[in-house]
Amino acid sequence: MEPAFIAAAFAGGLAATAVRLPPLAGFLIAGFVLNGMGYTLTPELDAVADLGVTLLLFTIGLKLDVRSLLRAEVWGSATAHMALSAPLGALALGAIKLTGLSLLQGTDWTGLLVLGFALSFSSTVFAVKVLEGRSEMGSLYGRLAISVLVMQDVFAVVFLTASGGGLPSPWALLLPLLVPAAPLLRRLLDRIGHGEMQVLFGVAAALVLGYALFDLVGVKGDLGALALGVLLAPAANAPPLAKTLFSLKELFLVGFFLSIGLTGMPTWETVLLAIALLLLVPVKGALFAALFLRFRLRGRTALLTGIALATYSEFGLIVGALAGEQGWLSDDWLVALALAVALSFLASAPLNTRGEEVYRAVAPWLRRRERADLLPSDRPIDLDGARAVVLGMGRVGRGAYDRLHEAYGIAAVGIEHDPATVERLRAAGYRVVEGDATDSDFWDRLTLSDEVDLVVLAMPHQRGNLAALESLGADGHRPVVAGVVTHAEEIDELYARGADEVHHLYGEAGRALADDAVRRTMEG
Q1: I want to staple 26 with a disulfide (CB 3.0 to 4.6 A). Which of 16, 86, 365, 437 is the partner?
Q2: Which residues contact 244 (CB under 8 A, 6 or more apart)?
Q3: Residues 6+ apart with CB under 8 A from 19
Q4: Which domain holds residue 447?
Q5: Cβ pair 231, 66 in contact under 8 A
Q6: Which of the 8 DSSP states describes residue 68?
Q7: Which of 325, 316, 323 is nearest to 343 (CA)?
Q8: Nearest Cα to Cα of residue 174 among 218, 113, 110, 111
Q9: 507-511 contact pairs (CB < 8 A, 24+)
Q10: What is the mean pLDDT of residues 160-184?
C-alpha cells in the first residue's frame, strides 16, 4: 500500500480528534486531499476496504440476536421507510432536474427511482463506528439501528438479484445446510481457546465460510459474513472473538473511508448535486424518527436512532455502478454519489456526537407525540423494596451486588442496558432491570425512593458514570454514590461531580492481592 495513504489517514484522524470530531471524518477528508493530489484508488486499498466491511458485518453478526429482526419496530419501520423514502427521493431529484442541471437531464424516471432507492439506505459502517465510539452498541437505540441496517442488507441482496446483478447459482440452495453445521462450528470456537488461533478462526469463518462461499454461489459475500457471525453468536467464545477482531476490523475500515474520497475526482456539477442531496438527509432521519414513534418507541429512542441512520450508504455506490452497467445512469453519477455519501458522514458525525443535546432541546415536543402504550422496555421502572442500586452488571457490578447481598444483607437492584445480560442474570436469580443510565429519560422512568441509600457506579465507561451523577438527586433524594474507574485520571472527575467514594479498579485489585498475600505469609 502507498505510504502516503497511511500518513494521510493518520494526519486526518489526528486533526479530526483535535477538533473533537470522530476520526472517520478525518479519514474521509484525507481521501479527498489525496484525490486532489493526484492519487487514485488502488487494488490494494480496495481490498483492504472490502476486508474491513466484511469483518465489520461478521462482528455485527456475532453480537446480533436474530429474534430482534422479527420485532414489528424493526422490520415494519425498515420496510415502511424504504417504501416511502425511495419515491420521495425520486421526486426530489425530479425537482432538481427542473433547475437544468445537465447531469440529471439524461436521467429518466427509471434512473431517478433507482437513485431514490439507493439513497434510502443508511451506512452500516458509519452507524457502527459511531455507536462503538459512544459505547452504545448494546443500548436500545443502538440495537434498533443495527437491526434496521441488517434488514436493509436483506433488501440489498434482493435488489442485486432482481436487477440483473446475477441470479444465484442453483448451488445456493445448499447454503441452509450451514444451519445444522453451526453447532459444530460453535463447539470448535469454544474449544480452540484464545490467541492467534481464535483470530485465525474468526478470519477464516468471515472470509472463507462467509464471504467466499456465498460469493461462489452468486449471493452477496458481505451477507455471508453477516450470516456466519449470526450462526456463531450463541457460542460462549463469540463475545471474546468479537473483541479480539475489533482492532483488526478498525484498521481495515480506515481503508474504506479513504477509498470513498479516492473514488473519483469531483467536478463543480457533481459537488452541487451532492450538496443538494445532502439537504435530503435531515428528511431521511426525520422519517425514521416518525416511524419509530409510530411503533411505540419513546422520543429519545426514536430521535437518536433516526440520527444514527441519517446518512447515505456505501451501498449507494454499488447501486450506482450496477445502474451504470444497465444503462440507467451515466458514469458521472458514481462520483456524485460518492461525494454525497462522504458529505453525509461529515455532517452526521458531529450531530451524533451531540445527539443527547439535540434531544434535550426538542424533548417536550417529542414527548407530546409519544404513544400511550409504549413498548415494555420503555415503561416506568419499579425499585420497590431495594436499598441499593448497582448501575452496570458486568463483573464489577455483579461482585458489588453479591457482596451487598451476602455480606450485608442489603436488597439491591441491578441496572443493565444489554438485554442478553439481563435475561441471563435474571435466570441466575438476580433482580435486574433493563435500562441505560446515559438515557436522560431513564431517570424520568426511575424513581429513587427514600429507602434507596446507596448507588454503585459500575459501568465500563466514564461517560455513563458522569451521566448518572448529573441525574442523581434531581428529585431531591441524594443517596451515597460510590464509583469504580479504570483510569486514575477519572477519579478526581467523579469526586468533582459529587461522588462520595471512588476506587481505581486495578489499583484496588493490586492492594487486595498484596494484603491477602501478606496475611497468608504471616499465617504460615
Answers
A1: 16
A2: 194, 198, 199, 202
A3: none
A4: 380-523
A5: no
A6: G
A7: 316
A8: 218
A9: 508/484
A10: 80
pLDDT tens profile 67-119: 788 888 999 999 999 999 999 988 988 888 887 777 777 777 877 888 888 89
> What is the spatial distance between Cα 337 and Cα 89, in angstroms, rounded to a whole number?
13
* Mean confidence (pLDDT) of the chain: 84
pTM for the predicted model, two decimal places: 0.71
Taking each helix axis from N to C end, the angle separating 140-162 and 221-232, rounded to the nearest 10 degrees, works out to: 140
Cell of 460: 465500563
Class of residue 431 by CB neighbours under 10 A (exposed 0-12, middle 13-18, buried 19+): middle
Q: Please name which of 488, 507, 487, 497 lies closest in space to residue 465, comparing C-alpha atoms.
A: 497
Q: How far apart are the first and last CA of the chain?
A: 61
Torsions phi, psi of 143, nearest 5? -65, -35
Q: Which three cell numbers stand for residue 115?
A: 437513485
Q: State how many domains the chain has.
A: 2
Whether 251 is in a domain gets the answer yes
Q: Are strands 432-434 and 480-485 parallel, antiparallel or unpaired?
A: unpaired
Beta carbons of 343 and 271 less than 8 angstroms apart: no
DSSP, residue by residue, 281-328: HHHHHHHHHHHHHHTT--HHHHHHHHHHT-S--THHHHHHHHHHHTTS
Give the domain CATH number at 439. Answer: 3.40.50.720
Strand order in 480-485's β-sheet?
432-434, 412-416, 388-391, 454-457, 480-485, 501-504
Q: Residue 2 falls within a domain, yes or no?
A: no
447: cell is 424513581
CB of 128 closer than 8 Å to CB of 118: no
CATH code (residue 333): 1.20.1530.20
Residue 215 C-alpha cell reads as: 460469493
CA distance 291 to 294: 5
Separation between Cα atoms, residue 248 and residue 150, nearest integer Å: 22
**DSSP-assigned letters across all residues of 505-521:** HHHHHHHHHHHHHHHHH
Count other Cβ atoms within 10 Å, centred on residue 7.
12
Helix (H) or strand (E) holding 485: strand 480-485
Mean pLDDT of 116-142: 83
